[in-house]
Every structure is written in structure tokens, then in C-alpha cells.
Amino acid sequence: MSERTTDEPNPDHTSDQPTIIVTDGGRRSSGAGWLIGIVLLAALIAGIFLFMRGSESETARDNAVAKAAGQVGDAAQQVGNAAQDAADNLKK
After folding, report:
1. What is the residue extent of each domain of the chain?
2. ∠ CA 53-46-43 to the nearest 5 degrees?
3. Helix, strand counts (H, E) of the chain
């Protein structure tokens, strides 16, 4: 611990004695800032990972819906062809 004496008068102007400021040599960090930074970085990485996984499942769902719609279209085409064949057979 070190002491430093300044020549400034007392701020209250109640005495002519100098103000004594006691310092311990500098600012020290407890590491809490680093810990908070690491936790925030981990949360950011987890959020990005979950967002990407959500996008993949959404793409898979969209592909499944498109495939099902294509199958419904194919089935409708087959029904239309069968109806046309039945109509053609009635005309003969």
C-alpha cells in the first residue's frame, strides 16, 4: 500500500491540512468480466447452432410437403386418365 499526499485544500474549507489519498497500487480484476464474456460467447454459439438446426428441419418439412403435393398431383392425373378411359369405353 502506498500513500500519496496532495497539495489540495480540504474541499469543505474547514481546515488547512492537505488531503491524503490512500491507494493500493492499481486496479485489479477478479476475472468476472472474462467469465461473463465466455458465458455470453457460449450462449451466442448455442443460439446459432439451434437456429441452424431449426432451418434444417424446416427445409426437411418443406421438402416433405412438396413431395406429398407431387404425389397428390400424380394421383389426380391417374384418376383423370381413368375417367377419360371410362368415358372412351362408353362411347364405343
Report:
1. 2-91
2. 155
3. 1, 2
